[in-house]
Amino acid sequence: MSALDKFFAELLDNLTPLRGLSIVVDIVLTSLLFYALLRLISNTRALQLAQGLAIYYILVYGIEWLSLKFGLLALNSVFSWLRNFSTSFLPLLLVMVFQPELRRMLGRLGSSKLVAADARGQLSDMRDWEESVDEIVKSVKYLSMNRIGALICIQRQTGLEDYVETGVRLDALVRAETLSTLFYPNSALHDGGVIIADNRIVAARCLFPLTASAELERGLGTRHRAAIGITEETDCIVVVVSEQTGVISLAVRGKLTRYLSPLELRGMLLVMTKPAANEHRFTLSALFRGRKSSPGKRGGQDGQA
């Protein structure tokens, strides 16, 4: 009986319903973990790096085993040292290779409901929110008809202060005329992107990170790469107007949806940027803010009494 047959025979002999259930749960959780990791690095340069890393270790282990089997002691010593050296620096190597993906994952974790910043990037008033969406769509329609390139970033839960600092700070209401003027060719602020947060145009001429994805359509330029890049790192929504074709696109979570009509764009923005009902939602930021403001509230109540 081979070692593998002996292992399965002992496993079946000691198998109980509880033990079998734990094995199934273990396999399912491990599969979900690997699936989540693959989803995290899919359509990114990190996937190619991971494949290269896997091939490297397969070759090192394979050559080490073959050299030992055929008595090539010098070659075996070299690859044994290489394996030990690579394994000792593997954690640092993984952090360096998957740094963008790790940053994106931690950013999404930080924007979850438990630790959300009380949806500060979403519009607080329903009427102002719908009016802002209509103004954005009106401007995008004008820009598309006149083939004027545009890059409009709408903040949601994740703050965009780091990107605001790369541009020129503004504090203007969301109006179609303002947006169209900002992107008008040869104007002082037409390069880069515009950031909209809390029903205000907060910055223009902002620089966004470019995506490293190798699976983009041919013909997509820097503007589209920047739209995908910033949505890979944050939960914002970016509207893009192509300067060459006037095509309207929407970038969300690193995915680009193209050839949208103004009506389709309006529907998607209304759904994706809808203000959340935060009054009864628990967040850590709301808890800390409540603790800080509670003395003042008590003082106000005492004064009224």
What is this structure's SSE topology?
Blueprint (H helix, E strand, L loop, with lengths): L2 H11 L3 H25 L3 H25 L3 H16 L1 H8 L1 H12 L15 H20 L4 E5 L6 H4 L3 E6 L2 H7 L10 E5 L2 E7 L15 H12 L3 E5 L6 E5 L2 E6 L1 H11 L11 H21 L1
Parallel strand pairs: 1-3
Antiparallel strand pairs: 1-5, 2-4, 3-4, 5-6, 6-7
Helix pairs in contact: 3-4, 7-9, 7-11
Q: What is the CATH superfamily label of the largest domain?
A: DNA integrity scanning protein, DisA, N-terminal domain
The sequence of SSEs as H and E is HHHHHHHEHEHEEHEEEHH
Strand content: 5-15%
- Quickly count the domains: 2
Overall morphology: elongated
Task: Describe this protein's structure.
Strands 2-4-3-1-5-6-7 form a 7-stranded mixed β-sheet, sandwiched between helices. Helix 7 packs across helix 9 and helix 7 packs antiparallel against helix 11. It is built from 12 helices and 7 strands. Helix content is 56%, strand content 13%. Strand 3 and strand 4 form a beta hairpin. It has 2 domains: 108 residues, no CATH class; 147 residues, DNA integrity scanning protein, DisA, N-terminal domain (YojJ-like (1). By secondary structure, it is an alpha+beta fold. The C terminus is likely disordered.
Write a compact overview of the structure shown.
With 305 residues, this protein is an alpha+beta fold.
List keywords for this structure.
alpha+beta; YojJ-like (1; disordered C terminus
